[in-house]
Every structure is written in structure tokens, then in C-alpha cells.
Amino acid sequence: MSSWRSARGTNTSQATSGAVVALGLASGIGLVTGCKAPPPLVDHWTATHAICQPPDPFVSPYRAEGFDEEACHEAIAADLGLDEASFEGNAEAEATRSNLLEAAYQLLGRPLGSVEEARAYADDAHWVRTSFVDELDLMAEELGTDDVRALIYSTLATVVATTRYWSEPIDHAGAGYSFRRDELAVTVCEAPPYCSFSLVHEAAHGWLGASHVACPEGHVLEEGWDYSGVVACDEDWSTVWGLQAGVIVLAYQSVVEAEPENQTTARHIEYIGRIAEFFILED
To answer: Residue ranges per domain, the chain?
Structure first.
């Protein structure tokens, strides 16, 4: 097991990491030095889910009924500690705020199944690894629920104390997590369904207390995406990209099971999963 709860927590090195922006996905990032254990998990999901009342089943990649309710916006903004002033002043920042709230709404509503169902998908030859399920077990033990979406949303809201709009570019990334301040800095959040996986990525940084390592020379995803030497990779599946990939698979399964004909969303989620796989150096 790889989280602070399982006695991993000695990394205090400076961390700068990046990720890819593709199909609206902007995943990142440990921005700053000073890893530390996160606070005990708090259930942010139950109250906010009751306020927002997302549809069930929630499979649409677009805005769903209930998201435009002001009370829902306010609840999600409070969970993310939104620094409203930082999102004011220009259209790009305001659009990022809107998409960010919708991305969090996607995490709040999209079914990810139970921990036991995740365990059934676990296959150490593919994206859902036993290390991912181990982390879900630890979250479930703290929160007293096995609903994976509740675990992931509550973990995000617990480890992120403040969310700010960051106008300066973040190298190879659209968002960044500061261990020192428990702060999420966001520069890009273009497509909420995929930006929601960026939020999972940031939650994983805070939960695991883990930063990335430098990608090896010649590590090229496709033309124009050369990550040689960029601190954006993970050594194995027990860290940030592995947790994110596990959530992506569960989201993919929820779409396929609820709407077998909805191949567009499923293909997009699978593509993002392959991007996550690219950044994990372990076979």
C-alpha cells in the first residue's frame, strides 16, 4: 500500500510535475516542496449530493439536470475552497470556474460502483491494479462507506483546502497541487468530463503524499508530446497515475453498463486511460 495511512510519508523533496492536455484533459502536478500527511478524511459527498441531486443514472458527458441550481454551485465551491476573487476579472478565468464546478459535479454524480466491484475489476496486467483497490479500502475504512464516488469526491474535498485560478502557465500541465498549502492551482479546465479526471489526479497527490519522477529520455506519447526529462511520470502503479487510471476504468464501466450504445464517451474515457498508462513506467 502506498498512502500516508500505510506508513509511506517520508518524501520531502521538491516536486514539480506535469501532464498532458488532450481532449480537454488537463492533469497535473505537485507544484511545491514539502509533502505532508493529509488530514483525516471528511464526508463531503453526502450533504453536497443531497443538495445537487444529480440524475441517476448519471452517464451523460454534458451538463445534467440540477447542475444549474445556485445552491449546488455554492456547495461544490465550498467543498473545493474556491478563491472566488482569483476567478474574477477576465472571461477565461470565469469560464475555468464554470467548467471546474461542472467537473466536480461529474465526480459527485457519476457512478463508480463499490469497492468490492472495483476489486472484481482488479487485474495487475491492466489499469485497475490491486494497489488502487488497497487505497480504496483505506479510504472506506476512514469514511465508513464503500461507494467509490463518495470516497473520491470526499478525498478531493479533504485534501484541497483552497482552489485558485492561476494565470501563469504551469509547465506541461493545466493544474497543480501544493502540498505545503493544500492548494489546487488551475490554469486550464476546458472539458468538464475530462477535467474531472484531472481533479482525481490532484486528489491522488494529496492522498498519497506523492510527487512524480522524471520521464526517461525518448518518452514520447505522440508527435509533439515529448516528455523526455519532464517530471511527469510515476515509477509504478501504486502512485498518482495508477489511482487516476483506476477511477477512469470505473467511469468507463459505468457508461458502458448504463448505455451500451454510448460508444463516443466510452472511447474518450479509454483514450484518457491510455494516456495515464503512458506516464507509468512499470510494465
So the answer is: 4-278
